[in-house]
């Protein structure tokens, strides 16, 4: 259970996901992306403690739901957040940033009289 409204990428949650644990996380902050908008874990609506309790009770009541979400969490953690995927995403980000900077700099160059 990761009810934080502020953590963008709680590493302990990612570790639990990689172990195939069913997760309940906050629908605020980075948990939405981490849990693939609810496909790899249940999302609760903070600051509602009753909603959090309902999501936890939902997992406790259904072994099949725990297994299904645990498998989805493990797949998500080991694919989208694997080292190679993270490095590829970082490389794409920096390549885009460099290209945008070059375009911005090119448009600022003075025109030479010819």
Description:
This protein is mainly alpha-helical and 114 residues long. Helices cover 60% and strands 5% of the residues. It has helices spanning 11-18, 31-34, 49-61, 63-79, 83-108, and strands spanning 24-26, 42-44. It is elongated.
Task: Please give a handful of descriptors for the protein shown.
single chain, 114 residues, mainly alpha, two-stranded parallel ribbon, 5% strand, elongated
Number of separate strands: 2
Spans of at least 5 consecutive residues whose pLDDT stays below 50 are: none
User: Which range does the strand content fall in?
Assistant: 5-15%
Structural class determined from secondary elements: mainly alpha
Oligomer status: single chain
Strand order of the largest sheet: 1-2
Termini separation (Å)?
67 Å
């Amino acid at each position: 259970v990761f009810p934080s409204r502020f953590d963008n990428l709680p590493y302990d949650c990612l570790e639990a996901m990689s172990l195939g644990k069913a997760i309940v996380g906050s629908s605020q902050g980075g948990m939405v992306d981490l849990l693939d908008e609810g496909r790899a874990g249940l999302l609760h609506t903070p600051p509602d403690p009753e909603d959090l309790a309902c999501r936890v009770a939902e997992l406790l009541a259904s072994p099949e739901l725990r297994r299904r979400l645990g498998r989805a969490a493990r797949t998500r953690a080991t694919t989208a957040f694997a080292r190679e995927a993270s490095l590829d995403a970082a490389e794409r980000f920096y390549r885009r940033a460099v290209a945008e900077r070059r375009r911005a700099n090119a448009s600022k160059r003075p025109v030479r009289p010819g």
